Amino acid sequence: MIYIGNINYSRKREGGLVCPVSIMHSVAVIVFAATYFTWTSAVFHTQRQVVHKKLRYLLEPPVYAEVTARRGANVTLPCLLQTKPPRYKVKWTKLEPLRRGVENIVLITNGQAQKGYGLLGPRASLRRAHPLDASLRINNLELGDDGRYRCELINGIDDESVFLTLRIEGVVFPYQSTNGRYKFNLQEASEACHGQDATLATYKQLYRAWTEGLDWCNAGWLNDGTVHYPILKPRAQCGGEKFRPGIRSYGPKDKIRDYFDAFCFTSITAGYVFFIGGHLTFAEALEVCREKGAELARVGQLYSAWHFRGLDRCDGGWLYDGSVRFPITTPRERCGGLSDPGVRTFGFPNKTQRLYGAYCYR
């Protein structure tokens, strides 16, 4: 796994590049940083003791309770019966903690017919490899399919369920407004991520990215309306040197009135990113991509190309949002001077400058 190291950037520049200098937080933030998740506290999700009801009809997931796949793939979530009651239904539900009171049903079957529901329904079906197979197949996975699912057998007497997690493989990246630091409320952060071929990251996705090397000193929204930032190297300007590495938490914030950056999540793409050299303005970069039957790449597409396809280029190029970045998988002295792989940035330069090439997506 490629580490996402040294993607921090501030407004202090050296030789034209944006330096990986952590942005100073206010004293209030430093005081509040005591409420963070450390390595041990962050894994509380998996350490709660749960008393399971003994299953009569369903089998516990036979191998793994977590299935991993990439965007665009087809996946099967296993759910097998030990025996069939005389009359029953199997209901598949995507558990949506953010939509309280709303059950996100994916599919219902009575063993003969089946019916899909909601946004997932048209892409969902039963595998039916044998008469006791109620496994759910999902085609052409999307970023929003990531999450926890329930397979529930309903017979009116002894209803029972098994739970599985679908994890989309991907990469988390911090995203900032063109207007500067801390300019998004929750809705604006979500829209900003979608505009860059991504979604707002979940806490689990941010936590995994932190274990893989993400160290970032600006707080950002997650999809549950909480605000966090991941720290691997504690330092004074990032919540204090005395705290251990961990996910610093601001907790739930006002989703309309509070403003932060965003942590976005993306996965592999169907297309590919390529570079066109030259000294181009932003408008000229848009045009040269169109001439190649492509468009300027989104930030998420560049991160995906770097993370999944190993894109390594030492040239700054325009992206669709007006930023200039370049992806490095093999760090070297003349390509940003940083020791870890990452996507480097020049921020959002004046669009009339003729200094950069273009990263196109087709």
From TrEMBL:
An example of a GO molecular function for this protein is:
hyaluronic acid binding
Chain ranges of the Link domain: 171-266, 267-362
Q: Where are the transmembrane segments?
A: 17-39
- Keywords assigned by UniProt? Disulfide bond, Extracellular matrix, Hyaluronic acid, Immunoglobulin domain, Membrane, Repeat, Secreted, Transmembrane, Transmembrane helix
SMART domains for the chain: IG (SM00409), IGc2 (SM00408), IGv (SM00406), LINK (SM00445)
Pfam entry (one): V-set
Give the GO terms filed under biological process for this record.
cell adhesion; central nervous system development; glial cell differentiation; positive regulation of neuroblast proliferation; skeletal system development
This protein's major location comes to secreted
Give me the disulphide-bonded residues: C217-C238, C314-C335
Q: Which residues form the Ig-like domain?
A: 61-169
Which compartments is it annotated to reside in? Secreted, Extracellular space, Extracellular matrix
Instruction: Say yes or no: keyword Transmembrane helix present.
Output: yes
Q: Name one GO cellular component term.
A: synapse
The Swiss-Prot or TrEMBL record describes its family as follows:
Belongs to the HAPLN family.
Entry protein name: Hyaluronan and proteoglycan link protein 2
This protein's species is Aldrovandia affinis
Q: What broad taxonomic lineage does this protein's source fall under?
A: Eukaryota, Metazoa, Chordata, Craniata, Vertebrata
